[in-house]
Amino acid sequence: MAILVIEDDPKTGDYLRKGLRESGYAVDLARNGADGLHMALEQDYDLVVLDVMLPGLDGWQVMSALRSKRDLPVLFLTARDHVDDRIRGLQLGADDYLVKPFSFTELVLRIRTLLRRGVTREAEVYEIADLQLDHVRHKVTRQGVNIALTNKEFMLLHLLIKRQGEALSRSVIASQIWDMNFDSDTNVVDVAIKRLRAKIDAPFDKKLIHTVRSVGYMFSEEP
C-alpha cells in the first residue's frame, strides 16, 4: 500500500515517513501543498495524510482540488482542533480527521480502517459507452463481444478507465504498468497503446482511447 504524506514541518514529516515505512507502507513525502497535489494527481496512492497549514496551497485547497479529480482516502492530520475546522474538512471530502499531538498507534489504526474501506470503493465492473470491464473476472467486452487481452493490456486498460477523463502522461503509465521510469527513447507505452487500440477501438465506430498531444493518453467517451 502506498501513502502520500503532505506535511511541511520537517520533524513531523520525517517522523511520519519513517514510522509508516516501518509499519509496512510505501511512503512519499511532500513538504508543501503544490508539490503534494501534483504527486497525488500524477501517481497512484492508496491514501493521503494531509496537513492543513501548508505553505502555498493550504490543506483545504489541496483537498478541494484533489476531490475534483480523484477519489481516494484522505486523512487530515492537523493542529487545528476547532469543531468548525473538522466540519469543513469532512465537508470538503476528507475521510477522517486527527488532531495533533496524536498517538502514532491511533494514526496507524485509522489508516488501516480507511484502507480497508478504500478497497471496497474499487468498482468490480466498469461500464463506459458500450465497453464493460469486469475487474474481478478479468474480462472485457464491447457491444457484448469478448475481447482477449494480455495481462499488461488489461492492466493498461484498467488504469485508463479508472482515471477516465484524465490525460495520463507516458511516465505515469510506465511507472504504474511496468514499474519503470519512462525513458524518452523507449516507445513501450506507445506500442502498448497501439496494440490495445487495435483490440478496443479499431473494430468499432466510437473511439475511446485518445491521444493528448505533448502529454500522453486519455480514456473518454468524448473525442
From TrEMBL:
Q: Which residues carry this modification: 4-aspartylphosphate?
A: 51
The source's domain of life comes to Bacteria
The record places domain OmpR/PhoB-type at 123-221
What Gene3D superfamilies is this protein classified in? 3.40.50.2300, 6.10.250.690, Winged helix-like DNA-binding domain superfamily/Winged helix DNA-binding domain
UniProt keyword Magnesium, yes or no: no
Q: Which UniProt keywords apply?
A: Cadmium, DNA-binding, Phosphoprotein, Transcription, Transcription regulation, Two-component regulatory system
Q: A Gene Ontology biological process annotation? A: regulation of DNA-templated transcription
SMART domains reported in the protein's UniProt record: REC, Trans_reg_C
Annotated DNA-binding ranges?
123-221
GO molecular-function terms, A-Z: phosphorelay response regulator activity; transcription cis-regulatory region binding
Give Gene Ontology CC terms.
Answer: cytosol; protein-DNA complex
Answer whether the UniProt record assigns the keyword Phosphoprotein to this protein.
yes
Q: Where is the Response regulatory domain?
A: 2-115
Q: What is the annotated signal peptide range for this record?
A: none
According to UniProt, the name of this protein is Cobalt/zinc/cadmium resistance two component response regulator protein
Species assigned in the record: Herbaspirillum seropedicae (strain SmR1)
Name the encoding gene, please.
czcR
